[in-house]
Amino acid sequence: MPGAGPGCYAATMTDNQRDEFYAALRARDPRYAQRFFYGVKTTGVFCKPTCASRAPLRKNVEFFDSPQAAQSASYRACKRCKPDQAAPRVDERLLNVCRAIEEAEESPSLAQLAQVAGLSPFHLQRRFKAALGVSPRQYAATVKRDRLRAALKTTSSVTGAIYEAGFGSASQAYSNGGSALGMRPAVFRDGAQGASIVYAIVGSPIGRILMAATPRGFCRVDIAQSDAELERRLRAEFPKANIRREDDTLQSSASLLVAYLSGAAPWPALPVDVRATAFQSRVWEALRRIAPGSTTTYAELARIIGSPSAARAVARACASNQAALLIPCHRVVPQSGGVGGYRWNPQRKRRLLELERAHG
Predict the structure, then answer these.
(1) Is 8 a catalytic residue?
(2) Distance of CA 359 to the CA centre of its chain
(3) Per the residue annotation, which of 51, 219, 318, 329 is the catalytic one?
(4) Which pTM does this prediction carry?
(5) N or C: where does the chain have the smaller number of CB atoms within 10 Å of the terminal CB?
């Protein structure tokens, strides 16, 4: 029977990462296409996360970082998704189309996107679906649903959030958006009813820190002067979730964060479970690649994610970050000088940068 070998993630994966990868393979999420491969113990076959085959039971799955690692563990390649064949390089023109969809207030037409790509509408449709696994229209629908998630958290009116997300009507949002949200928009806005969240609060060189986590990762990291303020803000963000304080459960992760702030450990790349639009996700992923002790500007970060004209949108994405430190928006500073704004107080941002430079 196939078993774990070199390149198997089993020895290093956290439970949160297993949850994340298993959810991705069940959803056939194209964003994970090259992040991992999975083997099915009962069949001896390994697949891509996007394989159209029926999803296996979680207990029968092993995760690998490459096709070679899966083959070394005695798995054979799936004949349906052909995971042992090199993935074709994504055409830069198609990436430009993705950016155009993500940055547009209203979904562009296929003809407009074809002009962006310099292709005919027919060839764009065919190449886009072959490369990403979904059509431009389906990709735009996903972007809209991501925007609706974010808008429902920041807009007092459900109707206003629906139109802000780019839906043409409320009925369209309820029919197309409901399944992606997992609940009707008004319920989602009203506090993630039924979600299970645990949290811990610890002291640190920059104040009291609250770390809150779902089974998938940290959904909130907040900084304040008092525990009462931190707990009030957590419950205001998730008013109908099942929230419990469990310091022991999160002790190891909290210790890593405090040790990092004290200069005794490297920056902890802990898993996060934050709701984001497609654009915010790109910004936050880029933020997590900035080395501790280093800084960049909003304009440079916009260039890094391939949207050089979106510096203001990048700044808004940084300002909407709910996971202080784990998504290190404090490493972005204005081009004009100074440290700029910081939702957890500019003085803390300055202190964070000083700590990182001193221990870097």
Answers:
(1) no
(2) 28
(3) 329
(4) 0.51
(5) N
